[in-house]
Amino acid sequence: MNNASSAASHSGGSSAQSTFMDRFLDRIERTGNRLPDPAMLFVYCLGLVLVLSALFSMFSFSYINPRTGEALQVANLIDADYLADLFASMVNTFTSFAPLGMVLASVMGVGIAESSGYINIALKKMVRVTPDKLLAPAVVFIGAVSSIATDAGYVLVIPIGAIIFKAAGRHPLAGLAAAFAGVSGGFSAGLLPSALDPLLQSFTQSAAQLFDPDYQMNPLANYYFTFCSTFLVTLMGWFVTERIVEPHLQSVEVSDEEGSVEDMSSYSAQENRAFTVSSLVLLGMGLALFALCLPETSPMRAADGSLTAFSSPLMRSIVPLIFIFFLTPGVIYGRMTGTFKNHRDVIGSMSGSMKTMSSYIVMAFFCSQFLKAFGDSNLGTLLALSGADLLQAMNLPGQVTIVGIVLLTAVVNLCVGSASAKWAIIGPIFVPMLMAVGISPELAQAAYRIGDSSSNIITPMMSYYPVIIVFTQRYVKNAGIGTVASMMMPYSIVFMIGWTAFLLLFWALGLPLGIGATYTYPIM
Q1: b or e along 157-189 (b: 16 or more beta carbons within 10 Å of the residue's beta carbon)?
Q2: Cα separation of 4 and 1, whole Å?
Q3: pTM as predicted
Q4: Model confidence over 368-396: pLDDT tens digits?
Q5: Which whole-number Å values give the CA distances from 406 to 161, 166, 230, 236, 363, in the listed order?
Q6: 3-class DSSP state for residue 317?
Q7: 484, 500, 502, 507: which is closest to 3 by C-alpha?
Q8: Which sequence ranges are marked TM in the entry (predicted)?
């Protein structure tokens, strides 16, 4: 038994229950650690597709291929001509992989704003103006909003949550838990678009095109839902923090080591002035974009005058706009505070943000090869149509199917922590399958985001989980995986139930999920 059980037992659970939790989570951790790197998963999947294509090509099927209108036939990829073409087109397959450019461009802009310190001071300011009575919802809300800066919330908001709770005479772990719930549990919520939107959209669109080659999906297809989800996550996190987690933490003794915690809530007059100027510039940019889009003859509109059609220049510019709207205030703030002394520092910051994406680039290379082979083989279409037959035979309501996707995602998240890797693996299977029974890719993606975010806070496979444990140990020396997991489990359960119900309510009321999004896919 590890030391986590000792801390967990103080929170009101029995030692036996804590031991069971520790063993359960340790088993998940060991299982996840035995899995290969996500890049190698796609290598193995590619090999499996080649073998299965040869096997299933020997059979005839009664299904009609929706892409060709002809009888479905699995193509044998273990063929000299195909393998020669696979290798010859390998570089082009990689460079034309839609998620690659979209994600890297977004991350470069966000990286500038983060490394300059602009995002950090924005989060600090939000914390400082919050009344003590509203600390819990404010910390959860700020955590959810910080998702626009990807990883910044993990290293800034979570320790700040603990600090301000302790300063207010409350248990610091309650503040840490509230912040962690907002940052990671609410990762798919947010008031503004983030790099996650085009990242998931590109994978979803690629999966949908396995079934319908002409299918196009807007990067902001879930934006209205995620915007509203920010407030739902805040309310749920507030309830769990004050009614469940904090009362159970009262008997957990806090280590008195003030010097071990860095002051992360203060900023200088120069930083404040730089933030004001750069934020005003950002506001001016937003107003200028609004003014540009307003006229009926705006160049940002589609031929039919629509701003939200996928073909409109505005919608096709979402990723460049994310890049520019993070880059500009980040550069101004960096120059005014001295973080960026010249253009080399700016370029260096972009390069630094790319270093953190090296593993993603490697994964994208193998993922692109897998998706090409998977699509060429027609195995995805066969799986979608046969799976659709099974779903139709079961005659389950669409709502039950969506709940199943949420739960499946949460289970997979216990072993594969990367949001993009998970969706790249299960998306090509379930998106076409759900399309075949009339459920849209946009709705499938929304369900995936709920399952992924709700379980992020309890999976040891999440890359920042060790960091969270370190933050926890600043206040409770013998804390471990079991301590954090038992503290976060109520958030995970409430988020999963409440957020899924919220999605079903959106669907029942016919509220738009996002720009250009639908709930159903027309079945021919």
Answers
A1: bbbbbbbbbbeeebbbbbbbbbbbbbbbbbbbb
A2: 8
A3: 0.65
A4: 898 788 878 888 778 767 766 776 677 77
A5: 28, 35, 18, 18, 24
A6: coil
A7: 484
A8: 41-64, 97-119, 139-165, 172-192, 221-240, 274-294, 314-336, 357-375, 395-416, 423-441, 453-472, 493-515
